[in-house]
Amino acid sequence: MVDFSLSDTERDIRDWVRNFVQRELMPLEPEVLRRERAGERGLSKDELAELRDKARQAGFWGVQTPEEYGGMDLSAVLTALIEVELGRTFVPFSFGGYADNILYYANEEQKQRYLIPTIEGQRKSCFAITEPGAGSDAKNIRTTARKEGSEWVIDGEKTFITGGIDADFAMVFAVTDKDKGADGGVTCFLADRDMGWKSEPIDIMGEWDRMPASLVFDGVRVPEENVLGEVGQGFALAMQWIGRGRYLLPARALGGCERLLDMAVQYSKGRETFGEPIADRQAIQWMIADSAVEIEALRWLVLQAAWQVDSGMDSRHAQSMAKLHGGVRANEIVDRVMQIHGGMGYTRELPVERWYRDLRLLRIFEGTDEIQRRTIARNLIKGHASIGGVLG
Amino acid sequence: MNIVVLVKQVPDTWSERKLSDADHTLDRASADAVLDEINERAVEEALLAKEAQGGEVTVVCMGPERANEAIRKALSMGADSAVHVSDEALHGSDAVQTARTLAAAIGTLESVDLVIAGNESTDGRAGAVPAMVAELLGWPQLTYARKLDTDGQSVSIERESDAGVATVEANLPALVSVTEKINEPRYPSFKGIMAAKKKPVSTLSVADVGLSADEVGLGSAPTQVVSSAPAPPKEAGVKVTDEGEGGVQIVEFLSGQKLV
Ligand SMILES: Cc1cc2nc3c(=O)[nH]c(=O)nc-3n(C[C@H](O)[C@H](O)[C@H](O)COP(=O)(O)OP(=O)(O)OC[C@H]3O[C@@H](n4cnc5c(N)ncnc54)[C@H](O)[C@@H]3O)c2cc1C
């Protein structure tokens, strides 16, 4: 009925990434930890660019980018498998050749200025919707844009914007028609940093690679040709951006969980208390077993959601489930892994605490646990999704 | 120039490796299997020679069905075709029988100019197969190459051993085995991976290469593994704090172990 195996080519691509992670990224782990602990970036921009170049030489670049832009144009399932492999290390790496999905809605002229340079890594974007007063309820944003001649003037503040520290343009969402609100009254603008917005980093629990910024728009003038898509149609773009690959966040966490559980198994075999390895204790074994089952469940939630994307189905319900399960379970697993490591798990000599801090974010951003549950429950109550899943 | 590369699938050095309790052969199920790293270097060297001289690179592999993964890796790096000798009867073959099988497989190919192999596999580590294959083919053997040059007529290598470095040269056809110093192998490319599935792989039985089943395999192997035991776990070393006596203590330790 169902075939869960990979094709040879899928396996080869997955193994290529696994090999790259083992050969190129894992050896950097001690140095990345050392630097992060000294408050520095784990990988410098040059080092990241060098690693990306190396992968690009072998054609690993633009994982989901269409072929016409030189990308690999891989399926969602393969992309998820790649994320799992990258997640097996905490070295903050992703392949180059990526641009936000909504930039593909740009017109030809905007594509030359924004889409293509972003794919090529010459420009860096950030996605700015959240505001101090509007997070989960993104429809409630207050940033405004008013038309003056051939320009739009943007006023407001955005917060928690990933990449906002060093992005050179923002895809910023502002209210252009207060009466219509999110339904026809929000517009997305391509706002270059040199048009005048300012950013301020926000110190967080996670490391550099996660560090967001607040963005201040104080009378920032954006030419009218910088509207992305249609005036008033911005909210739909925002939802598309957020939905672009919700399955990829838990995919990366899955890789981390696999590695963490592996570390816990190894540690439990070597650590003896009261004359026996702790691996022989039922209390430890149950933690290992529960984690393994949850990892397995997560794997198939993620891959099934990805498969729905590839099949052209409405995958939102499955993606919410994968994101929710990933966030909750990954946090339980890293907690158990820390427990199995005892005091060592809590030290900064091991990366467990780094993962512990990092994985916590998954329950908050791109839709909190509560918002995912809300979506899932509403889908069922309204009959948009079946309790029987894709099999009906 | 037609080049054959001998490749082997081995347990990943990243995973735990062990021998089967029943017959002391490699427990292939217990570890991830990969193309041997030393063979990646052999393939790389063949591809460099092909890029310079033209011709074709054929990989020859003896191993169970699963070894097709290692073959595909070599093909995705850029080799053109493959011969896979796969036969139940081969299970437990020793170095001599392996060399016999590989030489016979090479014999099925037309006009081979150069055979490149790794100097020793990362699992068995006998380091004998390349020399034996050359002997069976009646070709010159140039082993332990850390550098290889060929003009299509002859081949010359830098041979590195404990005694030093020698330059060795032979007319083709010849066999060269390479060490891990020879090169840094390329990553297969994405295009290479996509193309690999379409490259020709001929799967041959023992009979297809002209041998009979009783010439190969555990039963008739000239060498036998009688027993095996896991390496003893590493013991904690002795820590010497140098308080002026460090040098003396180290010498005492070394002479106590009869190392000096
Ligand atoms: C590191 C980081 C990076 C981020 N990157 C970006 C980015 O690049 N771009 C961007 O625009 N935003 C970004 N965000 C913002 C992120 O998406 C929001 O933080 C998130 O949507 C939650 O919004 P909030 O923080 O305002 O929490 P709130 O919405 O105020 O929620 C507070 C709590 O109430 C719960 N809650 C809210 N509404 C309900 C409800 N109806 N029912 C039950 N419970 C509810 C929430 O689940 C949460 O537990 C980032 C955030 C972080 C921390």
From TrEMBL, chain A:
Residues 126-202 form the Acyl-CoA oxidase/dehydrogenase middle domain. The lineage of its organism: Bacteria, Bacillati, Actinomycetota, Actinomycetes, Actinomycetes incertae sedis. GO terms for cellular component: cytoplasm. PROSITE patterns: ACYL_COA_DH_2. Residues 7-121 form the Acyl-CoA dehydrogenase/oxidase N-terminal domain. Transmembrane segments: none annotated. Belongs to the acyl-CoA dehydrogenase family. Residues 232-380 form the Acyl-CoA dehydrogenase/oxidase C-terminal domain. The keyword Flavoprotein applies. One of its GO terms (molecular function) is acyl-CoA dehydrogenase activity. This is Medium-chain specific acyl-CoA dehydrogenase, mitochondrial. InterPro entries: Acyl-CoA_dehydrogenase (IPR050741), Acyl-CoA_DH_CS (IPR006089), Acyl-CoA_Oxase/DH_mid-dom (IPR006091), Acyl-CoA_Oxase/DH_mid-dom_sf (IPR046373), AcylCo_DH-like_C (IPR036250), AcylCo_DH/oxidase_C (IPR009075), AcylCoA_DH/ox_N (IPR013786), AcylCoA_DH/ox_N_sf (IPR037069). GO terms for biological process: fatty acid beta-oxidation using acyl-CoA dehydrogenase. The keyword Nucleotide-binding does not apply. Keywords: FAD, Flavoprotein, Oxidoreductase.
TrEMBL record, chain B:
One of its GO terms (molecular function) is electron transfer activity. Pfam families: ETF (PF01012). GO terms for cellular component: cytosol. Residues 223-242 are annotated as: Disordered. InterPro entries: ETF_a/b_N (IPR014730), ETF_b (IPR012255), ETF_beta_N (IPR033948), Rossmann-like_a/b/a_fold (IPR014729). The electron transfer flavoprotein serves as a specific electron acceptor for other dehydrogenases. It transfers the electrons to the main respiratory chain via ETF-ubiquinone oxidoreductase (ETF dehydrogenase). Belongs to the ETF beta-subunit/FixA family. Heterodimer of an alpha and a beta subunit. This is Electron transfer flavoprotein subunit beta. It comes from the Bacteria. Keywords: Electron transport, Transport. The keyword Transport applies. SMART domains: ETF (SM00893). Residues 23-213 form the Electron transfer flavoprotein alpha/beta-subunit N-terminal domain. It comes from Halopolyspora algeriensis. SUPFAM superfamilies: Adenine nucleotide alpha hydrolases-like.
